[in-house]
Amino acid sequence: xxxxxxxxxxxxxxxxxxxxxxxxxxxxxxxxxxxxxxxxxxxxxxxxxxxxxxxxxxxxxxxxxxxxxxxxxxxxxxxxxxxxxxxxxxxxxxxxxxxxxxxxxxxxxxxxxxxxxxxxxxxxxxxxxxxxxxxxxxxxxxxx
Length: 144
What we know:
This is Cupin. The structure is a single chain. By secondary structure, the chain is mainly beta. The radius of gyration is 14 Å and the shape is globular. It has one domain (about 5-140): Sandwich (Jelly Rolls). A six-stranded antiparallel beta sheet has the order 1-2-3-10-5-8, covered by helices on one side. The protein has a three-stranded antiparallel beta sheet with strand order 7-6-9, with no helix packed on it. Helix content is about 15%, strand content about 40%.
């Protein structure tokens, strides 16, 4: 699976380390977010932490309501249970490194999401929520 780019809409994911590579201690992937790209629903993780390291451009994360711009060389720690999401609101494409500890998520999650998102027309949000739940992600659906 390594070296195979996964595309979910406009976002790309390239796994560098999976659970099998690290005895389950961490997973690591690069993700690219073009300027103005549609991005995943805000969510939280029940059983793992996520650390983001900026590689190129600026990705704007919102963690528990606080906005954090992550540029190249900057970091952000997202503890389990924290509601977060991200956008690229700048004019330049962005790329970041994500480290998941422990390695409870891997390429299969993103492949399953891609199968739902990469269709003609709007994605089936209910199917997406089921895949998220299967991998320990809790969508944070805004109250209407």
